[in-house]
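ugh finaly. both done.
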Amino acid sequence: MHAMPWWGGGEGEQPPFPSVDKCDASRLGRGSTVVADLDGALLRSQDAFPYYALVAFETGGAARLAVLLLLAPLAAALRRAVSESAGARVLVFAATAGARVADVESAARAVLPRFYAADVHPDAWRVFSACSGRRLVLTAAPRVMAEPFLRGYLGADAVAGTELAEWRGRATGWVDARRGGVLVGERKAQALREMLAAGEMPDVGLGHRRSDYSFMSICKEAYLVPPTPVEAVRADMLPKRVVFHDGRLVQRPTPLVALLTVLWFPVGLLLSLVRVATGVLVPMRWLHVAFHALGVRVVVRGTPPPPPRADGDAARTSTGVLFACCHRTLLDAIFLSVALGRPVAAVTYSLSRLSEFLSPIRTVRLTRDRAADAATIRRVLAEEGDLAICPEGTTCREPFLLRFSALFAELTDDVVPVAVECRMSMFHGTTATGWKGMDPFYFFMNPSPVYTVTFLDRLPPELTCGGGGKSSHWVANYVQKLIASTLSYECTGLTRKDKYRELADNDGVVPVNTDDGGNKRMAW
């Protein structure tokens, strides 16, 4: 018994369209229209399971991911024995049934682009990007999942996909039959005709299987994308790089990774509770050893500065040392304290009440009122001697540093830059759209997380505002470049507002309870 060729023809039959590597993209350009399938054409992977798994986890956690895993074999069997449409319906049901449509849209905007961007097929992208007229994409996946990435990161002008059925703001788990059902086969051709003017023919079509022939035959020329293993397009070759992304899963959730995630989840949750309790109960000077025993590695590089002397000792400075750290998770200041072997107070903007309660170090809330925050930082420096601050104002997961606020440079010349890195293998310990109170628990759910704290030299007087007459912005930019050079990161001018507008479609500001003085605080 012979296996069917990858393009879906019979044994000995030649494919009706040439391979995409035969396309001379230099002939294409201004005014050229291209239409491409998504899975298996624009993307290297023909299997959309990982993207459904991401949506499932973000909308329903490990329980929904487990349901998707249980139904995935049924989807595969139906796809082979019945139709491509039947298999897609099962995946759509498992990933979205009962989920808020807003949560699916949030995952599509903030989570999926990072994984889509790492899976773009080089040959398909070479042809797709060469067409500067109209770029059209057809996909059997729900349109709501694929459209944000295709429009925002690949420059697609229009996207047609499967439409989800909704009821009172929630996905029913079914596809909307009134809008074409699952977009496969002849339905793709019909959707393409609706996207074109009367008599118009796309210049190039890109597909990968027999069910794509119907829309490919409408094009002036068409090419098949073979499933040959290739390296994905480099991130810097795409029109827009993924700097910000959200979601809890670190790795692409293939069926095996998804299974391991579901099996580990209850174990990891229990382990995280033990690790958090250890951080709260064990004295800071012993925490390095305790964490190591629980599988949490803390790597210290550079020379940590000595603790401030007691009051009355002439050797103690009047304002203490300000540690200017890059911001990877809300645990940065805690692991800085672990590296020093002593608790160091930290100023925060968006720490949840639960995280404040569990924190083994003193945390001081800022209000983003510049004058009030400056007074608060000066007071804490005078009271504590040392203070940790993250001038970026929010976290970034990728190897980029956001713009550093210049406020810290105006308040003291005793600045020690600190380069912080963390490595997580299963779960991200940050979120922009979820509940931040779970951030430390997700970080500690990783089997063996690693925090690396690198102490750089204290800024010399001639490179500070007071001693060298430098502007605060110059000092902030210098510290940013210094830390970026240490970590081999890239400096950007992006800010917290850029992050939240990208991920959550807001400025990251929500009102919370008033403080004891009646002043309204804001959470960021």
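ok and the 2nd:
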Amino acid sequence: MKHKDGKPGSHPDKNSRAFPMAMMFVVLCGLSFYLGGIFCSERDKIEVKDVAKVVSSPKESSVAPLQIKSTAFPECSSDYQDYTPCTDPRRWKKYGNHRLTFMERHCPPVFERKECLVPPPEGYKPPITWPKSRDQCWYRNVPYDWINKQKSNQNWLRKEGDKFLFPGGGTMFPRGVGAYVDLMQDLIPEMKDGTIRTAIDTGCGVASWGGDLLDRGILTVSLAPRDNHEAQVQFALERGIPAILGIISTQRLPFPSNAFDMAHCSRCLIPWTEFGGIYLLEVHRILRPGGFWVLSGPPVNYENRWRGWNTTVEEQKSDYEKLQELLTSMCFKLYDKKDDIAVWQKASDNSCYSKLTYPDAYPPKCDDSLEPDSAWYTPFRPCVVVPSPRIKKSVMESIPKWPQRLHVTPERILDVHGGSASAFKHDDSKWKIRAKHYKKLLPALGSDKIRNVMDMNTVYGGFAAAVIDDPLWVMNVVSSYAANTLPVVFDRGLIGTFHDWCEAFSTYPRTYDLLHLDGLFTAESHRCDIKYVLLEMDRILRPAGYAIIRESSYFMDAISTIAKGMRWSCRGEDTEYGVEKEKILICQKKLWHSSTQSSR
């Protein structure tokens, strides 16, 4: 072979070419080993630095506290004094009338959110304290004349001077709620011995039924929709009785399955037999196995009552038979009946539900793809949620009686990731210490100044359990994005609800005396704007009410800045252990009146 210049090319033999290549390979390997050793040693140094940073104290941390620009929030106009953002009558016309869906939760988009302070009504006063508040409230705090004119003949309430008085009457118990509940207890002896602890009242009126049960050791969630005239839930909370805005329409109520020991409807006008019994299916879902459903009003006692119901005896008889058929198909049995009250009991075991697998069965059994506890904007399905066969100690006849059940580890804690008997006991002990510390920081806690309390992000209801002997009640809120611990709360004999704090809560303004949160912003600030959460707290907190904010030190400056802009007074305090990474803010909302209102 020749090069292109014509000179002969050299051809070295294969052995002479392999030697330098082998030497180069050895050199490269050695160099790689040397460089790799240097890199690894440097990586080890970096890892050590990271560990040192993790275990360093917050004072040594390079992360500065969150800072935001201070601002003074303006007052909302006076026509927003009863503003409920997600159940706002101003927005009802945007939604359909079918099954009253317009009364369900429909929150405004972000660009329509209010950044103003909701004013109290003209003449607002600090609420009457418990237990007097059960029987009376200031008229100017809930100035609704319509309900007074429409319901005074039924003894719901009556106006006397500057107060509303609550005689304890109702549509089905105009002679008084006490005698009505006495008859109910005769039909359901379990109401007397601590077996029944939690209840829900659908279509609650002014919550006289729930108010009476408090003295009998039964804690009731009174449920009613937002309306333009009656303000049932607002009256209930003004009286110091647990209540929440809600309606049985097209979506599940914000409670887990197998939660309540008893459900009640006193002429609540819910069409139980319509739409394939879909509303009864929801009652079945939220009732504990062995729990009771109590109905008074149409079509119960139709033989004697039909003339006053604007109907015929034949129509009412047909409605009653259809109701009984539906309840039987859902594994309810008629427990007892007398006068205007009928009581059905949900099956305690699952043997009855085998019939739901038949091809022509209605309603059918829900398939396994439907999560029983999914209850935040979850649409109804026309099927029966069959209780898990693993629930054995949570049925009515097996669950410990009140008050023992408060501190007994619920079996459903095992459904929570990381849940165990030891974790439950630790949480219980921790909150006893914390509550004792809170009372040192806020002496009003435990006095008649604080009645309506919300734990905004509870786990197992530990705070509520620690203050159980105080003259207050606690609404335990579990985030719809957090671990599902609400069944544990209910199994303890406490009440609560699911909620997403990126949205407004289902209540009227000025309905809680104390709001408590523990690391809520640490958990949710990546989703929810701190400003809007605090503005929502201001909306639902009563004037002169308190907030206990337990948070990472990182958020404290920002929270204090926003609170100042809402006219709150706050002071920082150490936790019970005095750690630097976590602090407590004790805040109080100022009582102020709208500058646009005339003086009286």
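summary for the 2nd one i guess: Residues 14-55 form the longest helix (42 residues).
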